[in-house]
Amino acid sequence: MYARDDSASAEAWQRLPESEHVEAAAESFRMLADPTRLRILWLLCGGEHDVGTLAEKVVAARPSVSQHLAKLRMTGLVAARRDGRRVVYRARGGHVRRLLREAMEAADHHLTGAPDHN
Amino acid sequence: MYARDDSASAEAWQRLPESEHVEAAAESFRMLADPTRLRILWLLCGGEHDVGTLAEKVVAARPSVSQHLAKLRMTGLVAARRDGRRVVYRARGGHVRRLLREAMEAADHHLTGAPDHN
DNA sequence: ACCATACGTGCTCATGTACGCACGCGACGA
DNA sequence: TCGTCGCGTGCGTACATGAGCACGTATGGT
Questions:
Q1: Environment class of residue A42 by beta-carbon count within 10 Å: exposed (0-12), middle (13-18) or buried (19+)?
Q2: What is the pLDDT of residues A101-118, one digit of tens each?
Q3: Which residues surround strand C, with CB < 7 Å?
Q4: What number of C-beta contacts closer than 8 Å exist between A and B?
Q5: Residue A1, exposed/middle/buried by CB under 10 A (0-12, 13-18, 19+)?
Q6: SS in 3 state form for A88-99?
Q7: pLDDT tens, position by position, A46-76
Q8: Would the CB atoms of B35 and A26 count as touching at under 8 Å?
Q9: Which residues of A fall within a CB distance of 8 Å from B108?
């Protein structure tokens, strides 16, 4: 009933992680900190999509979506593949999926009622 | 072997969540998108801390830490309590802990070797 | 009452970034 | 070869944000 290496059990939180890890995590979070990118990633978690389809679904100009996809690609969150004259993107890594679902669940808790269960 | 309501199983990712949820999630991610706030939250996940101690441990000016704590408090990620002339902050909600650990794990994967296991 | 401590706030400066438009480039089809 | 379609890029603009200084405020000790 103690030290499940999980949520509580303050052991791990005592000392700060190395700066490189912190900055890398911050960078990942910054990629998730934009509604448009969030929607793009959400759709990409469901399967492959080309830029035009994404731009249409997230209701944004294609250049904007392209820029977002470029950033996401640089960060390694998505991967690109050519199909004819289109470029098809897909989500990359299970971490993104878990972070998205966790955030959406938190948002739901934050909106429906109780701010959070402490 | 299908529909575990988990990572894959594209069902849930087909349609975008409501805008309110997306923006709320983006806001939460924006709070986590800064190295200083990330460090502060990390320490607060391990227990209560006052502003001065936090400023000392994260190596930042006290006013800066205070501003960050204000934002985190507005977002509901941390809570404050008065103890004498100090103000003691604590983390609030298990979502933050899970997001932090998930992000740190992802950062570790991203740094040590394989960018990610697709 | 006076001083010291611990926070919070207003402010400015510098930086980062999202958006959309116009353009250039590569890939198909006639 | 020429026209069309789909993407990416270089701008400029408008906006949000982080850092630190100086100051105001509240609490507790002498």
A1: buried
A2: 999 999 988 888 765 555
A3: A 30, 33-37, 60-61, 63-64, 67-68, 71, 84-85; B 50-53, 62-63, 66-67, 69-70, 80, 85-87
A4: 175
A5: exposed
A6: EEEECCHHHHHH
A7: 999 999 999 999 999 999 999 999 999 999 9
A8: yes
A9: 21
Is A42 in a helix, a strand, or coil?
helix
Is there contact between A64 and strand D, defined as CB under 7 Å from any strand atom? no
Phi and psi at residue A87, to the nearest 5°: -125, 120
Model pLDDT, residue A3: 47
**Would you identify the CATH topology of the domain B19-112?**
Arc Repressor Mutant, subunit A (1.10.10)
CB B47 to CB A13 under 8 A?
yes
Structural domain boundaries in chain B: 19-112
Half-sphere exposure of B89 (CA within 13 A, CB side): 26
Question: Is the distance from CB of B58 to CB of B52 less than 8 angstroms?
Answer: no
Task: State how far the Cα of A27 lies from the Cα of A24, in Å rounded to an integer.
Answer: 5
